[in-house]
Amino acid sequence: MRNVGGVPTCLSKIDGSDPTCLPVDAFSSNSPVSDAVYAWLSGVGTRRQQNDLQVINGVVSGTLEDYGLKSPWATNGIGFAITGEYRKYRNQSAGYGAWSTFTTFDGQTSVKELGGEIDIPLIEDRPFFKELSVNGGYRISDYNVYNNLIHSWKAEASWAPIDGLRFRGSLNQAVRVGVLQRLEGENRYPNTPMLDLCAPPRASADGKTIQRYSFDQCSIGMTRAQYDALTSYAGCDSRGFCPTTLVNGGNSELQPERSRSKTLGVVFQPRFIPGLSATVDWYDIDIRGAFEWTRIDMAFDQCYNNKVEFFCQFYKRDPQTGRLLVADARYNNSGYTATRGIDFGANYALDPKRLGIDEDIGTFGLNFNGTLTTKYERQFAPGNTPWSCVGYFGFTCRDPMPRWRHVAGFNWQLPWVKGGFGVTWRYTGPTTNSKLSTNPVLAAKPGETYPLLQRIPGYSYFDFAANVTLVKGVDVRFNVQNLFDKDPPLVGDAATAWSGAYFNTFPTYYAVRGRTLRVGVSARF
Question: What gap in Å lies between CA 348 and CA 365, rounded to an integer?
């Protein structure tokens, strides 16, 4: 905002970036909101996005038993598959959103892939070796946007000593190329205030002027000549925020991220409990060069206070004047993520006749899937202290990361009609505000005295679903999500120190629409 001839005028109107901008003082009763101002403040957001995918693939598969390639202790021969595929992907996006900025871009990429897989039965139908087999696969990908070929592979083993009991394990290397993160256009926002205490803050009206950093503090990210040239600069406010151009969006230099995963598990299908199948799988996933958008709000603190040199590159200065020209918040490959846990699964199909009920009352089913997360460690950049978000939500962790989550269900297939109904229980475990952590990366800094929502309790939601075939070829479906209309936790930014809860809650984990009813009909002719 600037005073132009005694008239308050938007900076965006002065520089031409938004000629329609109208000023308003939202904190004064002497500044009524006119219809024109209200219309400008409450614009309608629109967005158009189109994704096109073209795929050509081919597969050759078979067994090598006819060629004598078979284990002498196995019944079945070695199986193989060779695959080739070509994919072309195009992403177009455009639009404008009130209170949001949608990226406008039009990009495309293509890939040629060649892969192979082999399955080798080693031992079959022998004492303590009902089945022992190994499986391997390899894939080579040639993306038009990368100079080098990309390799991924897998190695798996399975051992069933007896019927109903199987042990399994795997080692995999996977890649993610970040098509959207590369293709997405670059956005530039001029006159964005960013913290820069290496420039002199403006004197405060209350006399509590913030002290400018010394050259020793700033030397990691600038030269002495730049520091001295900034001495007479008067563009920063009293809090130390200076105007610059914020850049975010896609990064054409982004490289693939790579993950290495290990799993060990057991499958239990006891013959003495017909219909029961249970699984327990331990997993360990390590992602290197992970895609991260630069947390530019942390860049100054990490560079000039914690001396993490990696973050200094995102504050780009004028070589002569030292002024902050660009704050770079685009995607990069700085991330590291390591997660570990145990997945539990169970399914039980119960025929009432096994309980001595002769009358045909249908069949019942129980199912359960749960995850215990024991580790979720992240690191934004090399040299940055890693942290674990297990059991936390908040400023750095963003979305909740509960230690325990599960989905359990019951269904009844009716004998009198072709259909049935079921009930599902969705549970998300409790989490604590990350500002209360003892890890200095997550914990509140001195002086952060705002009120905190300390904890989100465990949440349970119940859903109901039913389906029935009215006549041959006509099916009706009905379901209710959040059967008891339970409200989500409200975790406004003011209470959580900018937790990332843009919708005043976390819609990925909690029901934001209340009770939702759906009815559907399918007809086949």
Answer: 6
pTM equals: 0.77
User: Smallest Cα–Cα separation from 261: which of 235, 279, 287?
Assistant: 287
pLDDT given for residue 447 in this prediction: 52
Burial class for 269, CB neighbours closer than 10 Å (0-12, 13-18, 19+)? middle
pLDDT tens digits, residue range 343-386? 999 999 988 887 777 778 888 999 999 999 999 998 877 767 78
Domain boundaries, the chain: 1-42, 48-162
Written as six digits, the tokens of 219 are: 């030397």
| pLDDT score, position 430 | 96
Q: 304: which DSSP letter?
A: I
Higher per-residue pLDDT: 228 or 11: 228
Q: Are the C-beta atoms of 154 and 136 separated by less than 8 Å?
A: yes
d(CA 453, CA 494): 9
Q: For the residues of 28-86, what is the DSSP string, one character each?
A: -TTS---HHHHHHHTPPPEEEEEEEEEEEEEEEEEE-GGGT---TB-SS--EEEEEEEE
| CA neighbor of 83 nearest in space, from 62, 58, 64 | 58
Whole-number Å distance between alpha carbons of 212 and 201? 7
CB within 8 Å of 511: residues ≥ 6 apart: 461, 481, 482, 486, 488
Q: Which pLDDT score is estimated for 496?
A: 44
**Sign of the alpha-carbon torsion through 392, 314, 221, 225:** negative
Cβ atoms within 10 Å, residue 517 = 11
Res. 498: pLDDT tops 50: no
Nearest Cα neighbor of 334 from 297, 370, 386, 284 is: 386
Determine the average pLDDT of the residues in 187-208.
85
Q: What is the DSSP string of 421-465?
A: EEEEEEEE--EEEGGG-SSTTTSPPTT--S----EE--EEEEEEE
| Alpha carbon 3 to chain centroid, angstroms | 44
Query: What sign does the dihedral 212-216-220-224 (CA atoms) show?
Result: positive
Q: Quick one: pLDDT at residue 98?
A: 56
**Region of residue 215 (left: phi > 0; alpha: psi -120 to 50; beta: else):** alpha
Residues in the chain: 525
